[in-house]
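Notes from hallway chat w/ T.B., transcribed later so I don't forget. T.B. wanted the structure written out for a chain they're using in a teaching module, and asked if we could keep both sequence and C-alpha cells in one place. Agreed to drop them here.
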Amino acid sequence: MISFCGAGVFSYIVLLSLVLAFTIMIECLTAYLIGFRKKKNYTVIVCTDCITNPLVNIVFILFCLMLNNSGFFGFVFLSLEVIVVFAERYLFSQYMDFREETHVFGNFEFDQRALFTSIILNAASAALGHFLFLLIV
C-alpha cells in the first residue's frame, strides 16, 4: 500500500473530502450571511471550491514534504491562498450573478464584488479551518 508519512492514500482522500465539505459549508454559509440568495451563485461557489480546494491542499501537502518542517508553512499557505483568491475572483466574475442580490457589495463595481466575495469567503473558511486544525492537533 502506498503511504504518505505513515498514513495510507485512502486516509488522505477521506481527509481531503472532509476538508472540501467543510470548506463548501463554511463558504456557502458566509455567502448567505453577506446576502447572496441566488441558487446559481451557490452552484458557482461549490464548483469553484471543488476545483481549487483539492488542488491547494495537495500542493500544500507536497510543499510540506519538500520543506520538511522548515518553518515556511505560513508563507506557502498564504501564497496559495492569494493565488486562490485571484483564481476564484476570475471565476466569480465570469459565472456569478451579482445583479439583484442584496449583498453588502451593492456600490462596488462588478470585478470588485467578485474580488471581495472571494476574499471574504476564503478568509472565513481559512480562519475557521485553521481554528479547527488547532483544536484537533
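Follow-up for T.B.: Strands lie at 3-4, 7-8. Might be a good example for the class.
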